[in-house]
Amino acid sequence: IVKTVKGAELENVLCQHPFYPERKLVTMLGDFVTTDAGTGLVHTAPGFGEDDFNIGVKYGLDVYVPVDDKGYMTEDTGEDFAGLFYEDA
């Protein structure tokens, strides 16, 4: 442990993505995240779920939904996924 801080101090901190070094991630706070079954860190997908949507609105994120109203992946997901049913993607 290098330093101990309160979670609120981590809001908007930029982090390096663990698998894609060229990508930067920003930390956002959400009161629906717990440490009961893990670290308390989660990904956010504003197009999928009320809690994620609300975090997206709070932080000005785009609401991206790459699934059509019948459950199929849209063209912008790329040739490997476009047209696949979401459970098969």
UniProtKB/TrEMBL annotation:
Signal peptide start-end: none
Catalytic activity: tRNA(Ile) + L-isoleucine + ATP = L-isoleucyl-tRNA(Ile) + AMP + diphosphate
GO molecular function: aminoacyl-tRNA deacylase activity; ATP binding; isoleucine-tRNA ligase activity
Gene3D superfamilies reported in the protein's UniProt record: Valyl/Leucyl/Isoleucyl-tRNA synthetase, editing domain
Recorded GO CC terms: cytosol
UniProt keyword list: Aminoacyl-tRNA synthetase, ATP-binding, Ligase, Nucleotide-binding, Protein biosynthesis
GO biological process: isoleucyl-tRNA aminoacylation
PANTHER family (UniProt xref): ISOLEUCINE--TRNA LIGASE, MITOCHONDRIAL, SOLEUCYL-TRNA SYNTHETASE
Protein name, UniProt field: Class I tRNA ligase family protein
Originating species: Ligilactobacillus salivarius
